[in-house]
Amino acid sequence: MRKNNRGNREHRAVKFTRNFTKHASGSVLVEFGDTKVITTASVEKKKPKWMESDDNRGWITAEYSLLPSATNTRCSRERNKVSGRTHEIQRLIGRSLRACVDLGKIPDLTITIDADVIQADGGTRTASICGGYLALKDAIDKLIQSGELKENPIIEPIGAISIGLIGDDILLDLDYDEDSHAGVDSNVILTKSGKIIDFQTTAEGEPYSKDKMIEMFEIAYQAIQDIISIYDNV
């Protein structure tokens, strides 16, 4: 058995605490087991500098950071230049959240999602996407209530989960120890209707079969549906 007597196809306890901080337009503490991330949404009334003046879309971007004490050994703050890993995670979070929004319905706005990992035990990027979605939704709800947005730009909810192979066993929502020993490591990001935003899967050792890949995807799909259902109850 896994930690806490968890079955192979069982995700960790998932908890979302909304309105976690005072000043952000949306803020959520997301917990996947011992992984804890503070996600916030900040709204600026401007477009990115690179966007053409006649482009009427808004934009959603993301920043990700791992606090120095988030892991069992202190990691240095990335003050001047982010690492390749951080850059890749930031792009993944931003790209995922843009996929669930009609950017034409948030004209001249930039919404930044900040994901700050305060405790890491695997799955920080997928937890950041789930918490980031809820923080984004809360910020957009406030913009609608204030009259700044005329209609809801969110197309449908999204969710994310990690999954992997240890030997021949498929394990859902890997913690750090499991991730360190996984022969295959995947992150799955889907919309509520099951459309794929991202399906990153890598064989760390031996190649694996298409049947295993499909089975992993189906298990992840069901878990994401479960996580999205939690959104409505917090």
Overview of the molecule:
- By secondary structure, the chain is of the alpha+beta class.
- It has helices spanning 84-98, 124-146, 176-181, 210-231; strands at 14-18, 26-32, 35-44, 59-66, 110-119, 158-166, 169-172, 184-191, 196-203.
- The strands form two sheets. The chain has a five-stranded mixed β-sheet. It has a four-stranded antiparallel β-sheet with strand order 7-6-8-9, sandwiched between helices.
- It is globular and about 50 Å long.
- The two termini are 30 Å apart.
Strand content: 25-35%
Give the number of helices: 4
Let me know the average pLDDT.
Answer: 94
Rg calculated over all Cα atoms: 18 Å
Q: What order do the strands of the largest sheet run in, or round the barrel if closed? A: 1-2-3-5-4
Distance between the termini: 30 Å
Q: What shape does the CA trace take?
A: globular
Task: Give the uncertain stretches in residue-range form.
Answer: none
Largest sheet: 5 strands, mixed
Could you say which structural class the secondary elements and strand pairing correspond to? alpha+beta
| Helicity, as a percent range | 25-40%
Reading the helices and strands in chain order gives: EEEEHEHEEHEEH
The overall strand count is 9
Task: Based on the model shown, name its key terms.
four-stranded antiparallel β-sheet, alpha+beta, five-stranded mixed β-sheet, 234 residues, globular
